[in-house]
Amino acid sequence: MKKRIGVLLSGRGSNFDALAEGAASGLIPNAEIAIVISNREGAPGIEKAQSRRIETCVIPSRGLEREAYDKLVIAALQEKRVDLVCLAGYMRLLSPAFVRAFPNRILNIHPSLLPAFPGLEAQRQALEHGAKFSGCTVHFVDENLDAGPIILQATVPIEDSDTPETLSARILREEHRIYAEAVSIVLAGRYRIEGRRVLTSLEKK
Amino acid sequence: MKKRIGVLLSGRGSNFDALAEGAASGLIPNAEIAIVISNREGAPGIEKAQSRRIETCVIPSRGLEREAYDKLVIAALQEKRVDLVCLAGYMRLLSPAFVRAFPNRILNIHPSLLPAFPGLEAQRQALEHGAKFSGCTVHFVDENLDAGPIILQATVPIEDSDTPETLSARILREEHRIYAEAVSIVLAGRYRIEGRRVLTSLEKK
To answer: Residue A127: which pLDDT band, with cuts at 50, 70 and 90?
Structure first.
């Protein structure tokens, strides 16, 4: 039986696309995207999913309290019996009930070396702070913003000539790479958590 | 005329030693350590300086207000006509008057990728946070802790088997390398500051 991944997105879904490609190519072994859920109608990521013939679902969040909205999303994910939830540019904090429904089974990717530059426009933050390196982080999701235990990170240099756009593009290549790798690690159970540390090397073949 | 560097330290002075070696070997061109000042009697860094026949000065800070203490240190540095002040494990915040006395002429090195993990025991902080990369940062010093514009950074991976000691040793090798390089850049004026960004590539040969 293939492991089933649910993806939540709000925008273009480039990380969703990388995960879908990883599952299709076997880079992420024995897995498939079971459902893609967007809180925004017209998110380009939904079209990307449709063109891959992956099931999609738009659940508009406007006007709903967080808890009420999350119940709808949890129900949709549970109906599809997903083993893992991957956030891919999903622009909402999860409620504690959502986090409890999928313990250590929700991942997010963030375009900085957390704990530096959490929140929006992380690439611009890094550039304006004058950092010489940034990168990206795949982490377990808890109720706090960009805060759960870190599974993988990758670094990229920041050049004097960088703009938010050029830096974002450089980081994005690393995002696609480490997100697929982190999903493989988690689906295979090749990790253990000690405090905030996610240890993965001992379980590697 | 050689450029004159004043070093402030409180402890073992391993970064002082790297700068002294860099100046002696020509890795930092046309520079010398004019004075090493410690706020602590018995700091091993003072012995290291003496064995290199570099002038040293212990100015105990105990019992003195920050402003009064800093006046003594500023006077000692000015008497030696230093062009640049390098903090090397100097366990004190500088007063605004100190920062004003040497505008953009005070450097510090910190064992993390700032803005992540400022303050004490940065290596332990990174490890306990579960970061997968850390590193070190050379920055201009302002009145705030580990906060001024960043000149250079270097990254190192964090291994599952790391302890604060093994991680510190890995970072320290990079500290010695980038501190000497940053001092060379600043002494040669090969940089310009835009906002918080320190741009160095345009001025490179």
So the answer is: very high
Please state the three-class secondary structure of chain B as a single string: CCEEEEEEECCCCHHHHHHHHHHHHCCCCCEEEEEEEECCCCCHHHHHHHHCCCCEEECCCCCCCHHHHHHHHHHHHHHCCCCEEEECCCCCCCCHHHHHHCCCCEEEEECCCCCCCCCCCHHHHHHHHCCCEEEEEEEECCCCCCCCCEEEEEEEECCCCCCHHHHHHHHHHHHHHHHHHHHHHHHCCCCEEECCEEECCCCCC
pTM above 0.90, yes or no: yes
pLDDT digits (tens, 9 = 90+) for B20-73: 999 999 999 999 999 999 999 999 999 999 999 999 999 999 899 999 999 999
Domain boundary among the residues B53, B85, B103 is at B103
Q: Note the pLDDT tens digit of each residue in B124-154.
A: 999 999 999 999 999 999 988 889 999 999 9
B115–A131 CB contact, under 8 Å: yes
ipTM of this model? 0.94
For residue A133, the chain B residues in CB contact (below 8 A) are: 113, 135, 153, 155
Host domain of residue B21? 1-103
* pLDDT the model gives residue B202: 61
Best B160, B174, B200 residue to mutate vs chain A (most A CBs within 10 Å): B160
Interface test with A, best of B112, B124, B197, B198 (most A CBs within 10 A): B197
Nearest beta carbon to residue A128 from set B129, B131, B196: B196
Looking at the structure, tell me whether residues A6 and A71 fall in a common domain.
yes
Our answer to whether residue A139 is catalytic in this structure is no
